[in-house]
Design goal:
alpha/beta, Quinone Oxidoreductase, Chain A, domain 1, 2 domains, 6-stranded parallel β-sheet, 26% strand
Length: 332
């Protein structure tokens, strides 16, 4: 038996409970069994735990789109007992039992080796949020290199900067030498964002309301985890030849924008998917994270909670009440 969060949908309504599960109930479709050390909470996990959005596709479901741990049994040629592994996305916590549990059985093709520079805790301090931030930064880096745009030659905007994606994006971009402007709805967190590397902090309201289809040029690049009017305004105020990496929908799934920035300024909008990203891209992202983001930086925006606390924390993350990253110790 092992402990896990379990989402069910009885006639009385949607539920998420801490319970004990028999190992025999683990998904038969997996070929690697992992003893999980840590998981984490992302925005999508909050949606799954609360049922606020139809993230979970089948019931019962163990939520948690991330985990880091140790292989205990494997029928996959790449993995053996004792290997340290990380999983991000791939449908776990949505269509396949996920990481908010003490054990998981998954497909070996979904796993990435834990970088030697990181502990399991460190890897979950990054989690899908940080891994997604790295995918965004890499997309911008490729764009800037192709267009001859060097670090320090303009401002880079990070929206939702106090969230998981935003916090890591600020730290990564600052470490690369960029002038980072952080947008947040919590101005009291300005000093924290500046400690991560932001040069300036602006209020969320400057971007979240309907704006003109073409605005004053400012951003050479944008990492956006918010969507809706915020994303539209970020595109509208991007510099000629600039790029926007969009990876989230905290404000909404809509995009009330104009084609003007794209056809008059040559702005490029990159859609960033972390769930089904190919293995080469996953390994590249984790390699650059390990080279660029040290444990001391991770500690600045990370808080640890126990498995039982994750249920209430799911609602808090949707309410914008969580700074940075929440790491879940599934064994306490």
């Amino acid at each position: 038996m092992f402990k896990a969060l379990l989402i069910t949908k009885p006639e009385s309504g949607y539920r998420c409970d801490l319970t004990e599960i028999d190992e025999a109930q683990l998904p038969a479709s997996g070929d690697v069994t992992v003893a999980i050390s840590y998981s984490t909470l992302n925005y999508k996990d909050g949606l799954a735990i609360t049922g606020r959005s139809p993230v979970v596709r089948s019931f019962p479901m163990v939520p948690g789109i991330d985990f880091a741990g140790t292989v205990v049994e494997s029928q996959h040629p790449r993995w053996k007992a004792g290997d340290q592994v990380v999983l991000n996305g791939c449908g776990v916590g949505e269509t396949h039992w996920g990481g908010l549990a003490q054990k998981a059985r998954v497909k070996g093709d979904w796993l990435v080796p834990l970088p030697a520079a990181y502990s399991a805790f460190d890897a979950m301090a990054i989690g899908t949020a940080g891994y997604t931030a790295m995918l965004c930064v890499q997309a911008l880096q490729r764009h800037w290199e192709a267009h001859g745009m060097a670090a320090g030659s303009g401002e880079v905007l990070v929206t939702g900067a106090n969230g998981g994606v935003g916090s890591v994006a600020v730290a990564l971009l600052a470490a690369l030498g960029h002038t980072v402007v952080a947008s947040t709805g919590r101005p009291e967190e300005a000093e924290h964002l500046k400690a991560l590397g932001a040069s300036d902090v602006i209020a969320r309201q400057t971007l979240s309301e309907p704006g003109k289809p073409l605005q004053k040029e400012r951003w050479m690049g944008v990492v956006d985890s918010v969507g809706s009017h915020t994303l539209a305004n970020a595109c509208a105020s991007s510099r000629y030849g600039g790029a926007v990496a969009a990876c989230g929908l905290a404000q909404g799934m809509d995009l009330p924008a104009s084609v003007a920035p794209f056809i008059l300024r040559g702005v490029t909008l990159y859609g960033i998917d972390s769930v089904m990203a190919p293995m080469a891209r996953r390994e590249s992202a984790w390699s650059q994270l390990a080279a660029q983001l040290g444990s001391h930086t991770l500690q600045a925006f990370t808080r640890e909670i126990g498995l039982a606390e994750a249920i209430d924390a799911g609602g808090a993350i949707l309410a914008g009440q969580v700074r940075g990253r929440l790491v879940v110790d599934v064994n306490r």
